[in-house]
Amino acid sequence: xxxxxILSQELTTYQSEKARLLAxxxxxxxxxxxxxxxxxxxxxxxxxxxxxxRFGNTEFLVKQITALEEFxxxxxxxx
Length: 79
Fold this sequence. Notes:
It is a single chain. The protein is of the alpha+beta class. It has one domain (8-64). 38% of the residues lie in helices and 19% in strands. The chain has 2 helices and 3 strands.
């Protein structure tokens, strides 16, 4: 089995769709699971809620669609 970082597939998917996402939805938030763009949302909270609703407490990516990348790591407690 190949050792890969968590969310590497989701980040690859985002990067492959980034130009289209920027053109259509700059500033919004994208929800990505594996190789699928699940949806684009106005707020980060909306994207996170949909991710937890659809996938539960598993890995998925919520990222703001911007030309300039900002990196931050955080975790959110799930009730």
